[in-house]
């Protein structure tokens, strides 16, 4: 039986874009070629057979798609979109395929031995900051780093060195002084979802540079705001505009190929949709911990996939230990991990870098998420053999809910790096001298936490409804 959303879309416009989870018979499609080899004749034949079920949209349909793509593109990325000629796109590391189908193609897919579950392809958008203010760097640790206790990890010798973190966003400014030596690799996926050859690190907006700076920004005479200043980042430009789901899936496939153990992403679709579940399952199967923003639409709202029970979902808090008014939170009718976000992190007045050698303060769950991704990086360095599940459980188990913070808004509360380190390694964090030089430090008051430690289930997703 065809997915009702797919059937309704086909009935309305004549076609629908779908995501297909490949069966074991189809999992090898394109994998050898993606790794620089040659696919077997059997694999090529299976791919050709599967491709026959997809269509290339008509000229009128493509014109409509191109208009939508340009309208939704980031302001410096609005350009013509070439007509689609590819029937199907395979993401070999994710084990997925996408393409447009009509009614006949959908019926054929449902009986194909290489096609498993089929869902309508959703369209994600950037979780934009609620406020952006030009700022000057301060010769101190940012308040977010102080609040999370990041300096304790640095002083113990853990700054993220040797770990490459994944980052899907609007891109990254490769010339910013605060990101010098921080970029491991960069990929630009164009409006059709194709990788641009030899692209230099750049940002189609400023969001990506800001979030990247929070993860790996280098400390120095202009202060420190990067959680893991010794780590490197694999950053892909995947948003906004164009065939967004193709761009994001291409980026995720690339992140798995790059063997990044952690992925920071601040993208999503308003509300709950199960369409991403197979994608998140594929990410985790590929050894990637998804650290995603929950959204900026306030209480009783959330975004997919940041509201899934098998992602590390992040909300935003301010310096007074209050959940930001814009930070999304929601309870779902499911036995496993019903409340999102999983935890909160600094997300108000967050100083980081933006393109052109400049700096800005931003507010948003997009600003909180890279803080948590950075924590995961530090823990991965501390115990390289740790699985992504172990790192996730250590972060969640370390959380405390500050006095006055509502559980319905902040869930488990704020992570504690010292406790996370001990939970992960079985040993207390060693005390050593300063490892990252910063010109000066300021103290920040901390509310006494109420310790409410919890674990997180990463079990199979069940049907969910908004409450």
UniProtKB/TrEMBL annotation:
Key word Protease present: yes
The active site consists of: 169 (charge relay system), 207 (charge relay system), 366 (charge relay system)
Q: Which UniProt keywords apply?
A: Hydrolase, Protease, Serine protease
State one molecular function term (GO). serine-type endopeptidase activity
What is a biological process (GO) this protein takes part in?
Answer: proteolysis
Query: What's the family?
Result: Belongs to the peptidase S8 family.
Under the heading Pfam families, the entry gives: Peptidase_S8
Quote the protein name from its UniProt record: Serine protease
Q: Which Gene3D superfamilies match?
A: Peptidase S8/S53 domain
List each copy of the Peptidase S8/S53 domain by range: 160-399
């Amino acid at each position: 039986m065809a997915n009702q959303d797919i059937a309704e879309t086909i009935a309305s416009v004549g076609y629908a874009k779908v995501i297909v989870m490949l069966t074991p018979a189809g999992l090898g499609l394109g994998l050898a070629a993606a790794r620089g080899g040659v696919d077997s004749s059997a694999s090529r034949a299976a791919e050709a057979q599967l491709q026959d079920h997809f269509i290339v949209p008509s000229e009128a349909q493509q014109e409509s798609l191109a208009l939508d793509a340009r309208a939704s593109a980031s302001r410096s990325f609005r350009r013509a979109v070439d007509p689609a000629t590819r029937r199907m796109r395979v993401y070999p590391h994710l084990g997925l395929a996408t393409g447009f189908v009509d009614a006949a193609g959908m019926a054929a897919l449902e009986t194909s031995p290489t096609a498993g579950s089929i869902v309508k392809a959703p369209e994600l958008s950037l979780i934009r900051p609620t406020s952006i203010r030009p700022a000057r760097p301060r010769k101190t640790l940012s308040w977010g780093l102080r609040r999370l206790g990041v300096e304790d990890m640095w002083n113990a010798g853990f700054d993220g060195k040797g770990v490459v973190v994944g980052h899907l966003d609007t891109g990254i400014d490769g010339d910013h002084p605060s990101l010098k030596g921080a970029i491991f690799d960069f990929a630009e996926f164009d409006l059709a979802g194709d990788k641009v050859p030899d692209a230099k690190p750049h940002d189609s907006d400023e969001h990506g540079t800001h979030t990247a700076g929070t993860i790996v920004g280098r400390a120095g005479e202009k202060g420190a705001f990067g959680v893991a200043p010794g780590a490197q980042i694999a950053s892909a430009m995947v948003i906004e505009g164009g065939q967004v789901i193709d761009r994001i899936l291409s980026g995720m496939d690339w992140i798995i190929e790059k063997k990044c153990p952690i992925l920071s992403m601040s993208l999503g679709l308003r509300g709950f949709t199960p369409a991403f579940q197979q994608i998140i399952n594929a990410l985790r199967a590929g050894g990637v911990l998804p650290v995603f923003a929950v959204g900026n639409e306030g209480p009783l709202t959330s975004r997919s996939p940041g509201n899934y029970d098998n992602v590390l979902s992040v909300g935003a808090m301010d310096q007074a230990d209050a959940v930001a008014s814009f930070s999304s939170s929601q309870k779902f009718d499911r036995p496993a991990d019903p409340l999102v976000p999983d935890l909160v992190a600094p997300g108000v007045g967050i100083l980081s870098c933006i393109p052109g050698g400049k700096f800005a303060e931003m507010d948003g769950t997009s600003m909180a998420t890279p803080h948590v991704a950075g924590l995961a990086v530090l823990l991965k360095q501390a115990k390289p053999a740790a699985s992504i599940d172990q790192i996730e459980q250590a972060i969640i188990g370390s959380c405390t809910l500050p006095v006055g913070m509502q559980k319905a808004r902040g869930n488990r509360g704020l992570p504690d790096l010292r406790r996370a380190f001990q939970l992960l390694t079985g040993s207390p964090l060693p005390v050593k001298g300063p490892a990252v030089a910063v010109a000066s430090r300021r103290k920040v008051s901390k509310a006494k936490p109420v310790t409410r430690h919890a674990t997180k289930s990463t079990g199979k997703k069940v049907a969910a409804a908004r409450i």
